[in-house]
Inverse folding.
């Protein structure tokens, strides 16, 4: 497979965008896009994709692959307006209509890079099975291991939130399918790797320990209730470490013990992004001998990913199996 499109026209393009027009930018004809554009008839399970990108304002231009429909695809994009910061390259699965970057953060999913404004730059992605390698120009690449979607075949295209410029799209066979592995994730002791989702059943967490509710519930659902049961062999204390998005109320045996909110607040600092981080909150909960139930009622208020990451620890305590 080898495919080229100079993006100087919209021929053979499926346009799902608020803006898609051919313009002159930095001495070249180019596509000004705001949204998703898929190359018609181009589908693959693995491959290598390159496109040239230009930006003159804050925007999020990148490459979409494994496109199933306008609501579901893998996505890697750049952020020229935060060039040099930890998330100037971002992996972000588009799932059930949401960009869920608040779930996929950290060195497996984000990388610093120098991304210019007002100049063309190259964005590459190689993808095979559950991995992708993402590179801007000749800088050190981001290695993504554990792509979020289970479907590993689909269309190819380009995407941006807010207008950006694209030219010279190229796709071909991946030369080396032995893609490098990312560093292993060391989850804290007591990490909860499965939850019981009321109305659905047992749901497993992502490799980074986050329960991705977007995999089973669209943003429009609005609310989900998760539970785990704990056996206390004697009077004890439970250390409950957790992070979440967007809003949560926690219950122990039906009694409210915590409520909070964690949403996107801006670009001023890391803590304002609304990331789901397991050790963001710590509760020490007294427990009497016997069986108890922890419940988490989660609500979503913005389409950037919703879920929870948590660990449960304590002496004389056992987290009971779900199966």
């Amino acid at each position: 497979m080898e495919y080229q499109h100079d993006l100087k026209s919209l021929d053979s393009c499926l346009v799902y965008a608020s803006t898609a027009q051919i313009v002159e930018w930095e001495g070249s004809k180019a596509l000004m896009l705001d949204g998703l554009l898929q190359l018609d008839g181009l589908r693959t399970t693995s491959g290598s994709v390159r496109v040239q990108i230009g930006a003159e304002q804050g925007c999020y231009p990148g490459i979409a692959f494994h496109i199933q429909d306008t609501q579901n695809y893998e996505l890697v994009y750049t952020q020229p307006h935060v060039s040099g910061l930890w998330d100037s390259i971002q992996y972000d699965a588009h799932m059930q209509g949401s960009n869920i970057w608040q779930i996929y953060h950290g060195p497996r999913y984000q990388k610093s890079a120098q991304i210019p404004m007002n100049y063309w730059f190259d964005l590459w992605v190689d993808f095979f099975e559950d991995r992708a390698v993402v590179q801007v120009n000749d800088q050190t690449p981001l290695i993504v291991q554990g792509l979020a979607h289970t479907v590993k075949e689909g269309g190819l295209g380009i995407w941006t939130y807010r207008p950006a410029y694209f030219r010279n799209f190229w796709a071909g066979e991946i030369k080396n399918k032995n893609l490098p592995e990312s560093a292993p994730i060391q989850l804290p002791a007591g990490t909860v790797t499965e939850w019981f989702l009321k109305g659905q059943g047992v749901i497993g967490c992502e490799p980074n320990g986050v329960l991705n509710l977007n995999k089973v519930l669209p943003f429009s659902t609005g609310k989900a209730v998760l539970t785990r049961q704990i056996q206390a062999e004697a009077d004890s204390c439970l250390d409950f470490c957790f992070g979440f998005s967007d809003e949560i109320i926690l219950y122990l045996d039906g009694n409210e013990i915590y409520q909070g909110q964690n949403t996107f607040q801006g670009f001023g600092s890391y803590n304002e992004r609304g990331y789901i981080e397991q050790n963001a909150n710590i509760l020490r909960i007294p427990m009497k001998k016997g069986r108890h139930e922890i419940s988490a009622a989660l609500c979503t208020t913005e389409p950037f990913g919703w879920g929870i990451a948590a660990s449960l620890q304590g002496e004389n305590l056992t987290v009971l199996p779900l199966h």
User: Anything to note?
Assistant: The chain has a mean pLDDT of 94. The radius of gyration is 22 Å.
